[in-house]
Batch of 2 targets.
Target 1
Amino acid sequence: MTTALILLPIAGALLVWLLPWPTSRAAGGLALLVALAELFLWIVAVRGFDFGSGTLQQGADVTWFADLDASYKVGLFDFSLWLVGLTAFVGVAAIAYGMWAGRERPRAYFGLLLFLTGATIGVFSAQDLLLFYLFFEAMLIPLYVLIGVWGGTRRAVATVKFIIYTMAGSLLMLVAVIALGLANETFDLTRLQANDNPWIFLGFVAAFAVKAPLWPFHGWLPDAYREAPTEVAALLSGVVSKTAAYGLIRIVLPSFPEPVVDFRTVILILASVGLVYGSLLAFRAHDVRGVIAYSSLAQMCLIVLGIFANNASGLDGALLQMINHGLVSAALFLLAGAIERRTSTARLELLGGMARGRPLLASLLLATGVIALAVPLSSAFAAEFLILNGVFDRGWGYAVVGALAIVLAAMYTLRLISAVLHEDVGSAVHPQALDLRPAEVAIIGALVVALVALSFWPAGITDHAFTAVLSAR
Amino acid sequence: MTGAAWTALVSPAVAVVLIALAGERITRRGAGFLAAGATLVSFVATLVVFFALLGRDAEERSESSTLWTWLSAGDLRFGFEIAIDPLSVFMMLVVSGVGFLILSYAVGYMHGDVEERRYHAYKALFVFSMLLLVQAGNLLLLLAGWGMVGLSSYLLINFWHQRGSAVRAGKKAFIMNAFGDATFALALFILIAETGTLSFAPVFERAPEALGEGSTLATLVALGLLGGAVAKSAQIPLHTWLPDAMEGPTPVSALIHAATMVTAGVYLIARTNPLFELAVDIQHLAAILGGVTIVVAGLIALVQTDIKRVIAYSTMSQIGYMFVGAGLGAYGAGLFHLMTHAFFKALLFMAAGIVIHALAGEQDIRKMGGLGRELPWTFRFMLIGALALAAIPPFAGFFSKDAVLASAANAGKLGWVLWGLGAAGAFLTALYTFRMLFIVFGRQASGFVREHLHKERFEGPLAMAWPVAVLAVLAVVGGLLQIPGVWHAVDDWIHPVAESIEEASGATAILSALAALGLSLAGIAVAWILYRRPSRAPERARRTAPWAAQLLENRFFVDEAYDVYFYEPASRGASFLHRFVERPVFLTTLGDLGASVRGGGRRLGTAQNGVVRSYAFAVAAGAAVLLVVFLIAS
């Protein structure tokens, strides 16, 4: 089953590349069908999943290099299942939006999007270190091309930065993967022994810190999020960044119990700093995407706070927030794209007054915004509450900083909402600029509906995750 | 009974969804009727619950009902849980009852607004949030309702979002309340760590042992809760958002910023009284903040020129009385004042709304005058509200304010200080209320009034008139629910949840009431002398003490202080980080890594020049270096 989940989008990508009709509608349509089939497959996987057992499920294991004890081993834990679902769902939204917006060279474009989806799902389900690394790298290739070819005017700079940063991180991880594999005499993730080598630990942490990104490894983020095509930015911030948090949960926490304790204070402090830093810069950003980019930085730091709190509350909260933020930032980026299409700008001082006569845009932006700022009763509130409650156990200072950051989040989100929707009509807002079209409403609305549904029952996730991890303690 | 309680909660939420989905398929007015109707359903359901509880013994009136587990983490479980007990039913009656009247009034008031449907949907969302707040069966859900009322308040304050002032006011209200939410949440983390749950009954049961009476932890918990209460109830020092919130439509001010949401702080203190009683200092702090707010807000109200802002400051000041009551442990008195205040303050706002409506949106009292003859019924309603606010018997405010003052008189030295503040507040209240009344309704009709007044039948649409009349009746008779020394219906009703301290003895209570009444009458008399007709006396007073006028007109410069000490540093800090950290370090230096690597590559590339000589040289040099390295290593 897991193999099917990985292979379907990758095979779909090949199919789209080979498609004889080079129109956006044909290529996008096929890609969308594949993405929908993937989502359906995931639902089937959920239905067949036994949440009580907490074991690795629906897996496959084929020997790859017998000498190294490396194999093609995949499978799903309860928490990875949710992240696979997030990827499939946001993948559908991204491809649908790209198809609606229309892109040049559509076969390559949609093929790459599908490939990216497949590789990301591969990361979430790999149970072998080498395989994990393979998918982790495979994820980057389509991103380089998607940003470098289809990006905005400054795409070259953005791509180079992105490549340098992620390559550096990847190389460190490769060294760490080899070292950890050799030390264990196996690359099988399910059979790794606890390791107390701080250098291997730091290799993994650095790679994930770049990918997430965490402060101070975020230099690539503002440019990449600004220059990437809308739906690529949505996938990048919504889903791809979550692979880093997943890596911390799946590899770092179980494999390095001692270094995790030794370095906990440092990492928690860095994450707290990043949380405030990102929030302040989001408050200061001049453009819509800048606000979303820096708020993503802050949110990833918050998630890391939960992960390194390393208790039930922190981990459950971190997972829930990974799902929330995936949906929220995807919706926000697509909304940013919708605004940019109508005004040809994202600069806040040129926007304003868009609520008048555009009730759908206003409602969706407002709904996404208030969930993003974690208004109580939303699933984001539930997640942040759990994260801060978890990290409170490690020191009340972190929780105080986190609570302060919630106030800052209210400040930058309301500023964004007002700057786009309220007061005087901005100079870039043409009176004839349309409200959201039905296709846009359907795509972004689906993301918002998922968030609202999650707000009704956040325990749907937290009750069905980490059964094995937490009962082992 | 549980079914009725859930119906009360869910009904407004259903209205929100229906209005949102129906879009233009229902008329604007229809949306209003839907919202008001849903609130009426809540009220009726609440009555069902109320009578069901009334039929039981006092000690068996508390129940809770959980529909599903809302959130979990390990052993922690937080249910979607409501509490059905005297306190929550008391609040539900006020919220859904007064809420229904105000939502009905709003159908008339908002008639013709372009976005009327959105308004009614937000209003129903607020009622749902407020009911969630008072019905929540655990502190997490209470916090959820707490934040949701903040959200609906934000949405309604900046309902007229074309106005920059409304947008700023909305943001300010939300952000100040977010502060309160944050301290509230921090208090909950301590409770989770120490007691392992957030459901009311087990938390209150385990808290004395887990926290310890008077311990630092207990103090911090109470302080965190108090932070939330102070922000939501606009008490000093987190009060500056409330006057600005008057940017919203008038029915919003009546419902949210007078009758219900702003009194949530009092509810919170009464609800979590077992926690506050573990940290008596903090509970007294609540009373002191309330006492200071009574006087400060009363003073500021004296110089306000916007009719709604006068009433807003009076709301702050009246909530101060409730805080004094709740802070001293006289929960019955505090909640009693909460109820009567909901009646007469909603009445005042709605009568003011009729005035504003009749004057085409004008709110400046300096432009008004002589309206008593033009709008006689509105004048009578306003007069009832003013008499109730100024605590003149037999109007409702007299009994409830008196109950608070009598409890203060009974509470030792601190109590006497607070009594003094409350008594001074009584004088100020009467003075600013009747100042407004005389300026607006007395005197000669101003040129502005003659030009702009447009009257309808009943001085306003019928939809606006009848809820005002009902509230006027309640403002007259509402106080009879509890008469010191005769009966204490409110105290008796809520005592299973919040046991009040002993009431003052008969003699003290009567003396305190007489003194306060004297001060109120004095306030009215002074207002009569100064403001009955245009005079130079206020102008002279301003000239003799210009600093005092400055201080009051600038509202003690608290807004400015927040700008200087909070907003500016945050904003400057963000700019500083962007200019001196983010751009040079992360965007340029590290960002240029790419460029420098490329530059290095280009330079290295020149080595590949195709000249065999240089290759041979490089090989020889390399071999030489390796040789040296091996020699040293061996």
Note: Residues 312-343 of chain A form the longest helix (32 residues).
Target 2
Amino acid sequence: MSGHVLRFEGSAHNETDRLLPWFVNGTLERDERALVERHLAECVHCRSELSALQQLQDLPAEAVPLPDAGASFRRLRGRLQVRGTAPGASRWQALRHAWMMAPSFLRGAVAVQAVVVLALVAALFGPEFPPDGRYRTLGDAGPATALQGDASHLVVVFDPHVSQAQMRQLLRASQARIVDGPSDAGAYVLAVPAARASSIRDALRAAPGVTMVERLDPVERR
Amino acid sequence: MARLSGQRVGHGAAEDVAPADEVDLMSRIAAEDMSAFETLYRLYHPRLARFLAGMTRRPMLAEEVLDDAMLVVWRKAHTYHPSAKVSTWIFAIAYRQALQALRKVDDAVEPAAERHAEPSQTGPDIELQQYEARVRLAKALTALSAEQRAVIELTYYLGYACREIAQIMDCPVDTVKTRMFYARRRLKTLLGTSLEEAI
């Protein structure tokens, strides 16, 4: 057979010819059946074809001996027992199936209940935000943590490919600790000794694996 | 027009189980209810046996495929969704299983005509003519592709609509019509100028 799919449009004769098998088995939609019936009334060839297809449909039905269903099922059940072939449904899958079979209003009600329960659980056990918790931008004056008197803050963006080991080494060499971040832009806020803030900034700028370093202290802003 | 004769095993023929009951059976099978599975098996066995024998033209292989297909039904019952007809869901599984099985075996095996019952020795001439016609038709059907035979079986002997066959074979409706078109043309070539003359 060709892999080409034919387009079945055109004359009533051609359309009727294509639809005849399903006219014979009585499954055409109403408009298709009406088209075929109209054409059959005036086309000898299609009536002849219809007769042939009806005989084709009737002919072999009695020719195929069917195996005994009872014996076949016993054999299949034996296979199930031997192989321990329980249905593939786990308890979770069975629950899922039961969910799909449930009426839609019931599923909706259960879904709403689930959302309410989740909201309550989140309210009870969710993360607690500090009373003065606020979001900061890179240009903000300082992190939420209280500034130490002898500490300055740097905002640092590391190269995305820098390893954790490299990052730790840089932090140790700078006597820095991360006090905030990473932000959406991948920036960290580092606390460093105030006396060495400028030299640490310059050292970090020169270090591989660091994309950007700026001081956050007001004195550095111009 | 009568949809199906009493001899036929089509899905619209005499059945005691309504589609809604079939959906209920599927739900119970998903919950590992073996008695529901047996009910469904007995309900579909004649139709699947007929379909698979006609599609594969190999009775032994057809029985194996039938068992394999019903095993898939047992295992995958939890994936059935009632938006589809149980009938098309099961036949789609059987169709895929048959295609897979046919790909695995060599194509030059037993002609199906050998399985046809011999005409009775005392029968009238018309019975002999029908027997001969069946043998010729069976031989001609072996020359078709498995997909074409599937369309023939699903249409003429199982009474499915073109749209349902498209769902079973997982293809567009026009592909079903194309397969039927080429199948009929091939049968005419093999049997004579028209099916009527051949029969």
Note: The helical segments of chain A are 12-24, 30-40, 44-58, 69-83, 91-101, 104-125, 164-173, 197-206.
